[in-house]
């Protein structure tokens, strides 16, 4: 058993699925959990049901009550006209990014329940680390759904931590999209620092996350953004990440870290242009884990997020967060670039269903990710951005 870390998962989160064609697909949760089991890193009895109920009061820590009521009402609304008025008003219309589906409120609130349960387990001192893969829906706004996100579990968990424990929270968002919903929730709060490294909003949803977004009023300085160039590769991505995050932690001095592990900055991801490999998904949790122990007495809550190559990228990336969190020997071996094969049982079970040939190893092979010809210019542009992002720290 992993005494130092809890793994939260709720079956209801597997119903958070908009439609068959939608890029957000909970199959990635099943694939990731199965990979961890096959790797010998997770047992059935270690998977915990979330134990904090997602009441309206809890949801209201980050959302307006008329929005919460509307999401609930849509489930029971028979009149098609009021259905379409409501869904349009709250960002849930058909044909848009985040379309309403029956059962949405239950599925979305189960995700909140998982992330807040993880936060509660860590803050109450039951355990040092907790992981909730289904969480990380960072684009949801107080009064509307956006970018596949309905309830902002990360923002709610941060508000919960503030409310019950008054701890200083560092939110780290490595999803390829700017963590806008969480940022705006705490933009004027000096006790919550939001850090987001992402593809520049010049070319990618949600179009924000510029380096000059640094917080407002008392919160000025407690918001850090690193917008990177399209086609950024591993070395430049990691240079910016490691060069900024250490400084942010040293200057902000958080009591707890909540990290969002969207893994859509991978070269295979269909929704973005960043060109990284699995290497960054081994390094990200390793650095965060170390910082949590060095600065926060180990307090670390991790959630999932974006990631739209469900078969080749997400299971490996999200498994590596748990391997790191539990000090599993595989995490060290992967970090040392040992050419480790993925478990045969996992490959065998999913090979026929995957639309792409599945990778054979935990890390990508060189041939899988073609080099980008403009590497030098991209690296230089990112380096200048990094200098601006950390100039006041
Ligand atoms: Zn994303
Ligand atoms: Zn640890």
TrEMBL record:
Which CDD domains does this chain map to?
A: HDAC_AcuC_like
According to UniProt, this protein's pathway is: Ketone degradation; acetoin degradation
Recorded hits in InterPro entries, A to Z, give: AcuC, HDACs, His_deacetylse_dom, His_deacetylse_dom_sf, Ureohydrolase_dom_sf
Q: What SUPFAM superfamilies does this protein map onto?
A: Arginase/deacetylase
GO biological process terms on file: acetoin catabolic process; epigenetic regulation of gene expression
Q: Which ranges carry the Histone deacetylase domain?
A: 22-323
- Highest rank taxon of the organism: Bacteria
Q: Which GO terms describe its molecular function?
A: histone deacetylase activity
**Does the entry feature the keyword Nucleus, yes or no?**
no
Pfam families on file: Hist_deacetyl (PF00850)
Asked if the Swiss-Prot or TrEMBL record annotates the protein with the keyword Cell membrane, the reply is no
Q: Which UniProt keywords apply?
A: Acetoin catabolism
What family does this chain come from, according to its entry? Belongs to the histone deacetylase family.
Q: What is this protein called?
A: Acetoin utilization protein AcuC
- According to its UniProt entry, this protein's organism is Paenibacillus oryzae
Q: What is the lineage of its organism?
A: Bacteria, Bacillati, Bacillota, Bacilli, Bacillales
